[in-house]
Amino acid sequence: MEPPSDDPLVEESCEGESMKPSPLLCVEILEAKPNKLFTEEERSWIRFLRYNLPIPCADCGKKKRTMWTMLCSFESITIVSIGRMSKKSFAPMTPVCNEHPLGPDIPKSNAEKVTA
Ligand SMILES: [Zn+2]
């Protein structure tokens, strides 16, 4: 039997060995399990992204294979130094690494009060 050469099904698996010269980048999208870190509502928005290759975080640029994101527009927080944070807004499904707490990018009128 000849090995299948152009079988489109072959490329669908990203679990394979990394012998290929340029493996296809793919991602697995996972829901967080119920836990104390997130409210049930937050959990419904948050998704973990598990890539087969490291990709750069949209916020800090660090390359990682595990990212997280939200299904709605969201804010990502970076601790700049003690007491100083920078917030950036991202479109739904933008991958950021786990060093940035995420929260829905709620229009300002409803946003929680900023504590100085
Ligand atoms: Zn990052």
Name its key features.
single chain, 116 residues, mainly beta, 3-stranded antiparallel beta sheet, 1 helix, binds zinc ion
Name the beta content range: 35-45%
Could you say which overall geometry the principal axes of the C-alpha atoms support?
globular
- Count of β-strands: 6
**Distinct small-molecule ligands in the complex:** zinc ion
- Please state the CA-atom Rg, rounded to the nearest Å: 18 Å
Main sheet: strand order: 1-2-3
Q: Could you spell the SSE succession in H and E letters?
A: EHEEEEE
Biggest sheet layout:
3 strands, antiparallel
Judged by helices, strands and strand pairing, the structural class is mainly beta
- Number of contiguous helices: 1
Terminal Cα separation, in Å?
71 Å
Provide the residue-averaged pLDDT: 83
Describe the structure.
With 116 residues, this protein is mainly β. The chain is 5% helix and 36% strand. It has one helix and six strands. The chain has one helix at residues 40-45, and strands at residues 27-31, 46-56, 63-70, 74-81, 84-90, 102-104. The protein has a three-stranded antiparallel sheet with strand order 1-2-3. It has a three-stranded antiparallel sheet with strand order 5-4-6, with no helix packed on it. It starts with 26 loop residues before the first strand and ends in a 12-residue tail after the last strand. The model has no long low-confidence stretch (mean pLDDT 83). Zinc ion (ZN) is lined by residues 57, 59-60, 62, 96-97, 99-100.
